[in-house]
Design goal:
The structure holds 2 protein chains of 2 kinds. Chain A is mostly beta strands. Chain A has one helix at residues 97-100; strands spanning 3-5, 14-17, 20-30, 38-45, 51-57, 61-64, 67-78, 81-86, 92-96, 112-118, 121-126, 130-138, 151-156, 161-165, 173-177, 182-187. Chain B has helices at 7-10, 24-43, 81-89, 127-142, 152-160, 169-178, 192-204, 259-275, 286-294, 305-313, and strands spanning 47-48, 54-55, 68-69, 74-76, 94-102, 114-123, 148-151, 214-220, 229-230, 236-244, 247-254, 298-304. In chain B, strands 1, 5, 6, 7, 8, 9, 10, 11 and 12 form a 9-stranded mixed sheet that branches. Mean pLDDT of chain B is 95; it is low at 1-9. Classes of the chains: A mainly beta, B alpha+beta.
C-alpha cells in the first residue's frame, strides 16, 4: 500500500486512518530551531465528515487512501438502494440513501454524476451543479403575479419539494442549483 | 458531501506566480529593518563580514538537514556559524553578518528553505552580555520594549506546569496530555528531548512574548548544541532564545570552545541521525582546527530576519514579507 512521508504532507492529501478515508485540510509545519520537526495536521473524515487533529513527527508516514473519481450514470432506484453505472467500465454500483444524501432530490434516470470511490467502493456522489426538473404539483399562483420574490412550495418529478417563485405552474421545467438547492430560472425545454 | 478538490495538486504553477508574494509596503519595511540592523551593529563597532554559503563543512545537528551541492562535496550553509567562529579564532573581536541560510525540508507558515539570517559574535561576552545585546536588537527592530528574561525551567513551570529538568519522560507525556497537546504516536517513551521539544513547541512557545519580547535561557544540557554547559545542579546549557508573539526569533550561545567536547557532540549527533534514518554529516571540520588552535571566549546569536519583518508588519506568514518564497522562487 502506498503511503505519504511527512515531507509530502500538504493540504488536499487523501489518506487512510483506522480504515477510514480522510482529507488533509490543514498541515502546519512546526519546528523549534534546534529541535524535532513536527506536522500539526487537521483531517476530515470523508465518510462521517468529522474533523480530527493529529500531530506527526518528521519521518512518520500515513497510508494513502485509494480514492478515485469516476463519471457515473444514474440508472434506477430499488427501495433504499440507488443504482449507478460507471460510464467507462459499465460496472454497476449501489449506493444507500445515506450515501446519496441530499442528491436524491435531483436524480433523474440517465443523469451523469460524479462518484468518489474508496477502495473500489462508492463513497460519495455529486450530481451536476445545475439540473432541470419538471414541476409535478403546486398550488396555482396568483394571476399576473410575475414577482420572483414571492415564493411557494412545489413538488418536482423526483418527489422532492422546493421553493419557487409563485408564477411557476404545474408542468413547467425549472433549473435548480444542486449545491444550494435553489431555484434559478424557468426553462423552455 | 464533499468532493475532494484536486486543483491545487494538479497545477504546479499559476500564471500569477511571477509576481512577488509580498506587497511593496512589506518590501520597504524589509529594507528599513536591514538598515536598522546595520546601524545597530555599526554603532557598537561590530565589523560586517561575509563568509561562504558553499562549504565542505556543515553544522552536525540531529535535526538540521543541509542541501548538498556538487555531488555531495559541498553544503549550502544552515548558518554562517563555522566560518564566523574561524574569524574569531583568527583575531575577530566583534563581527556580524546578514546572510542567506538554507535548511532542507523546512517549509511552512514560519519556515522557508532559504531565509535571511543575522548572526553576530563578540569576544569576551558571557551569556548575560549576549542576552542584553539580543534584547537591545529586538527592541531596536520591533519597538516593543526590552526583553523579559525567563529560564527554561520557569517557562515550563509557568505554561505547562512541570519542571523540565526533574521530570522523567512519563511525567512529560502526562503534562502534554494535561494541556491538551496531541503527541505523535511515534514519539518514543525514551526520547526525552523529543518530549521536551513537543512541550516547548506546542505548549510553551505559543504563550511566550505575548506582551513584550521574552528571552528564555539555561536550556537542558542535552540540548546544548554548540553552547557551553555550566556545571551545577542540574548542569544547564548556556543557550538562550528570543521569542515574541509566540514566535521563535533568535538563538544564542555562550560558545563552546572545547574541541574535544565538540567532537563528542558531533559523534553523538551522527549516531542519532543514523537512528533516524538520516545520512551522517562530516564530523571533522576547519572549525575544529580553529578550536584546536584556540577559540576565544565569546557569545553569539543568530536571528531569523524574515520572522522579525513578519511580526513588525503584523503579518502571520513569512510569505507575506518575502518577495519570492519557495513556492514561487
Amino acid at each position: 500500500m502506498a503511503s505519504y512521508n511527512t515531507s509530502e504532507f500538504r493540504k488536499g492529501l487523501k489518506v487512510q486512518l483506522d480504515g477510514d478515508p480522510y482529507l488533509m485540510i490543514e498541515c502546519n509545519f512546526v519546528k523549534p530551531g534546534k529541535g524535532q520537526a513536527m506536522y500539526k495536521c487537521r483531517l476530515r473524515n470523508l465518510i462521517r465528515n468529522t474533523v480530527l487533529d493529529r500531530t506527526y513527527k518528521s519521518g512518520d508516514s500515513i497510508e494513502a487512501a485509494d480514492i478515485e473519481e469516476i463519471a457515473a450514470q444514474y440508472l434506477y432506484r430499488q427501495g433504499d438502494q440507488f443504482v449507478f453505472m460507471d460510464d467507462e467500465t459499465f460496472e454497476q454500483y449501489e449506493l444507500t440513501a445515506a450515501q446519496v444524501d441530499d442528491a436524491w432530490k435531483y436524480l433523474k434516470e440517465g443523469m451523469k454524476c460524479s462518484m468518489i470511490l474508496f477502495n473500489g467502493g462508492p463513497l460519495t456522489l455529486t450530481p451536476p451543479n445545475h439540473v432541470v426538473l419538471k414541476v409535478e404539483y403546486c398550488e396555482p399562483g396568483a394571476k399576473g403575479n410575475t414577482a420572483s420574490n414571492v415564493t411557494k412550495p412545489v413538488t418536482v418529478e423526483t418527489g422532492a419539494e422546493m421553493s419557487c417563485p409563485s408564477f411557476v405552474e404545474v408542468g413547467d421545467l425549472i433549473r435548480v442549483d444542486t449545491r444550494t438547492g435553489e431555484y434559478i430560472e424557468r426553462v423552455k425545454e | 458531501m464533499n468532493a475532494p478538490d484536486d486543483a491545487a495538486e494538479t497545477r504546479p504553477t499559476s500564471p500569477g506566480d511571477f509576481r512577488p508574494a509580498a506587497g511593496w509596503d512589506a518590501l520597504r519595511l524589509r529594507a528599513r529593518l536591514l538598515r536598522t540592523v546595520r546601524a545597530f551593529f555599526d554603532d557598537r563597532n561590530f565589523l560586517e563580514v561575509e563568509t561562504p554559503l558553499l562549504s565542505a563543512d556543515t553544522v552536525v545537528d540531529r535535526h538540521l538537514d543541509p542541501f548538498t551541492v556538487d555531488g555531495g562535496r559541498l553544503y549550502l550553509q544552515t548558518s554562517p556559524e563555522f566560518c564566523m567562529k574561524r574569524l574569531l579564532a583568527a583575531g575577530g573581536e566583534a563581527i556580524y553578518q546578514i546572510t542567506r541560510a538554507f535548511r532542507r525540508e523546512e517549509q511552512g507558515r514560519l519556515h522557508n528553505p532559504e531565509f535571511t539570517m543575522v548572526e553576530w559574535y563578540r569576544v569576551g561576552d558571557g551569556m548575560a552580555e549576549g542576552m542584553r545585546l539580543l534584547g537591545d536588537l529586538g527592541e531596536a527592530m520591533l519597538g516593543r520594549g526590552g526583553a523579559e528574561l525567563l529560564t527554561y525551567r520557569e517557562a515550563f513551570e509557568r505554561h505547562v506546569g512541570i519542571d523540565p529538568h526533574a521530570a522523567d519522560t512519563e511525567a512529560l507525556a502526562r503534562a502534554a496530555r494535561d494541556v491538551g497537546i496531541d503527541a505523535p504516536a511515534s514519539l518514543s517513551t525514551t526520547d526525552r528531548n523529543g518530549w521536551l521539544d513537543l512541550l516547548l513547541a506546542l505548549g510553551v512557545q505559543p504563550r511566550l512574548g505575548r506582551e513584550r519580547p521574552t528571552i528564555v535561557y539555561d536550556y537542558p544540557a542535552s540540548q546544548a548544541a554548540l553552547a557551553q554547559v555550566r556545571t551545577g545542579q542540574p548542569p544547564v546549557a548556556e543557550r538562550f532564545e528570543l521569542y515574541f508573539s509566540g514566535v521563535e526569533l533568535a538563538n544564542g550561545y555562550h560558545e563552546l570552545t572545547d574541541a574535544a567536547e565538540l567532537r563528542r557532540r558531533n559523534a553523538r549527533a551522527n549516531t542519532l541521525r543514523r537512528q533516524d534514518g538520516k545520512s551522517p554529516l562530516p564530523e571533522e571540520s576547519r572549525l575544529l582546527a580553529a578550536m584546536d588552535a584556540g577559540l576565544p571566549e565569546a557569545t553569539g546569536a543568530a536571528l531569523g530576519f524574515d520572522r522579525v519583518v513578519m511580526l513588525a508588519a503584523g503579518a502571520t506568514s513569512l510569505a507575506e514579507v518575502m518577495a519570492f518564497p519557495m513556492d514561487r522562487a
